[in-house]
Predict the structure.
Amino acid sequence: MKLLIINGPNLNLLGTRETSVYGSQTFQEYFKTLQNKFKEIELEYFQSNVEGELINKIHQVGFTYDGIILNAGGYTHTSVALRDAIAAVKCPTIEVHISNVFSREDFRHVSMIAPKCKGSVSGFGMDSYRLAILSFLA
C-alpha cells in the first residue's frame, strides 16, 4: 500500500505555531513515528504553502497511489481548485485536521473539499493522521 500525506499552508510551522492549538511536535518528528508504526505501508510526505503545488502533487499521485491524506489547512475553507483536483483523481482522499474545526471560528466550519473526500478526521491532534491511515486498512 502506498499513501501520501499532504500538508497545506502554515503546517510547515507545526511545533512552533500556536502550540496551544497544534502542539509542540514538528510534523517531521511525527511522520517518523507513523513510518515506524506502519512499516507495511509506503508512506510519503509533501508540504507546500502554495495551492498550485498541492494541486500538482494530487494530480501526480492520484492515479497510482492507494490514497491521499490531506490537511489542506486554510485552503480547506476556500479552495474550489483543490476540491476539483480531488474529484479528478482516482485514488481516495481522507481530509484531516489536527484541531477540532467545529470548536473554532465559524468560517472553519465549512469545508470546500469534504464532499469530494472519502471521509474526514478532525480534532484528535496529530493522531488524526494515524486514524486516517487506519481507515485505509479497514
Notes: Residues 13 and 96 are 17 Å apart (CA to CA). The chain has five helices and five strands.
